[in-house]
Amino acid sequence: MPRVAVGGTFDPLHDGHEALLSRAYELGMGGEVVIGLTSDDLARRRVHPVADYRVRERELNRYVTDRFGISPEIMTLHDPYGTALKEPFDYIVVSPETHPVAKKINELRMTRGMPTIEIVLVPFVLAEDGVPISSTRIKNGEIDLHGRLIG
User: Keywords assigned by UniProt (predicted)?
Assistant: First the structure.
C-alpha cells in the first residue's frame, strides 16, 4: 500500500494545486495520502497575506472530499519538512517550486539512515499567457484560479 506525501499553503486552492493533489491521489490509490498544510506561523513568511489555517483546511477538506470521495489526512506543517523526516513514505509529490525541499528531505533522510522517498515532479500548470499559475498572481489580480487573465 503506497504512502504519499504532498504539501503546501493551498491559498487559494487553484489549478496548480489540483494537479499536485490529483497526482498524489493517483499514486496513493489503495494506500494513504498525507497532505501537509502550512501552519499560520510558516505561512506568515509568504509574500502575500494568507488565509487562516482553519479556513485553508476547510477548503482543502471540501475539495478532496468532493473530488476524490474520501476524507483527507491533513497534518500541520510547522517547518518545510513535516513528518517526511520521520515517517515512511513511498512518494513525495512536488512542483518545480518545492522540488528543492524534496531533495533536501532525501538528503536529511540519508544522513539518518532512512530510505529516500521517490520524488514525483508535477510540472507547473500554465495560465493562458503561458506563465505558471500561482497564488501570488491570483492575489495580485492578474489571473483567476484557472489561469484565465483578468482585465
Answer: Nucleotidyltransferase, Transferase
Angstrom distance (rounded) from CA 117 to CA 58:
28
Q: How far apart are CA 68 and CA 34, in angstroms?
A: 14
| Domain presence at residue 143 | no
- Domain membership of residue 82 (yes or no) is yes
Domain count, the chain: 1
Assessment of whether the complete model's pTM goes beyond 0.90: yes
Q: What is the CATH number of the domain that holds 18?
A: 3.40.50.620
By residue range, what is the domain housing residue 23? 3-124
Sort 80 into a burial class: Cβ within 10 Å, 0-12 / 13-18 / 19+.
middle
| Residue type at position 39 | S
CB-based contact 46:9 (threshold 8 Å): yes
- Give the residue among 104, 97, 101, 106 at the shortest CA–CA distance from 134: 97
* Structural contact between residues 117 and 108, judged by C-beta atoms closer than 8 angstroms: no
